[in-house]
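Weekly sync, protein design subgroup
Attendees: M.S., D.O., the rotation student, P.L. (late)

Item 1: inverse folding check
M.S. brought a backbone from last month's batch and wanted to see whether the design step gives back something sensible before we order anything. D.O. pointed out we never logged the input encoding, so this time it goes straight into the notes. Structure tokens as presented (246 positions):
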């Protein structure tokens, strides 16, 4: 199975108030080698996250004390590299979109299969570390946008733009192929996992969030900036077009 930090078994935090689902998740994860903590409230889950620093969180959106969307956002702010999978009822599609936009990496609709959940987690935890070539590469400069893969920083002019992990990796992948079309399948394979079989809506939500962050950085810059444009290629994918000349 996949491993956590430094080769140890991955640690999972389950935040779920339903006893039946919580017990099912706890026993299923432990039976497959995960070190698992189960919390029935959002506040207890947040405390456990800061105490245990888990590799992943399974987060129910319908908690008795805290709003699940707000908790997902808080977890993403506090733990940028944490894997967050939200759990939701079948009719709550709007909550799914809001949860992904708040920083979740994936979602499962209740009721769900433990086999599918474990496969999703394996796909996420197989994230490849950056290659040596990427670690040593020079920053990519496109107009007033700088993407520094080795430092995992993005700058608009001289100001750093805070991006979530997947937003950064998505922008870096487009920047490496600036001016060229990159298919949805390629982005899903390289930014998520080559064996990913989850919803491609995750890509759309992440792309929309990335665009908003770049637009905000452009609008609040202390001077006029010229940024490359992310062009949607309907039915294919995306392309990062060069920044317009001053």
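Designed sequence read out in the meeting:
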């Amino acid at each position: 199975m996949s491993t956590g930090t430094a080769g140890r078994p991955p640690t999972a935090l389950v935040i779920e108030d339903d006893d039946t689902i919580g017990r099912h998740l706890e026993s299923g994860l432990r039976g497959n080698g995960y070190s698992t903590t189960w919390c029935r409230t959002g506040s207890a889950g947040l405390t456990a996250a800061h105490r245990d620093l888990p590799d992943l969180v399974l987060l129910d959106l319908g908690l008795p004390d805290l709003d699940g969307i707000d908790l997902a956002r808080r977890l993403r702010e506090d733990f940028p590299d944490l894997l967050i999978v939200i759990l939701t009822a079948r009719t709550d599609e709007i909550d799914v979109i809001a949860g992904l936009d708040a920083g979740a990496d994936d979602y499962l609709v209740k009721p769900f299969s433990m086999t599918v959940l474990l496969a999703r987690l394996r796909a996420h935890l197989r994230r490849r570390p950056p290659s040596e070539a990427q670690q040593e590469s020079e920053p990519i400069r496109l107009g007033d946008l700088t993407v520094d893969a080795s430092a995992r920083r993005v700058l608009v002019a001289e100001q750093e733009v805070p991006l979530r992990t997947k937003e950064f990796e998505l922008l870096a992948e487009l920047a490496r192929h600036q001016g060229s079309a990159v298919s949805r399948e390629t982005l899903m394979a390289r930014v998520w996992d080559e064996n990913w079989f989850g919803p491609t809506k995750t890509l759309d939500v992440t792309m929309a969030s990335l665009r908003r962050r770049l637009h905000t950085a452009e609008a609040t810059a202390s001077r006029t900036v010229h940024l490359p444009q992310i062009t949607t290629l309907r039915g294919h994918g995306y392309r990062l077009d060069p920044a317009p000349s001053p």
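Discussion: The chain is about 40% helix and 20% strand. The CA atoms of residues 81 and 165 lie 6 Å apart.
Action: P.L. to compare against the previous round before Friday.
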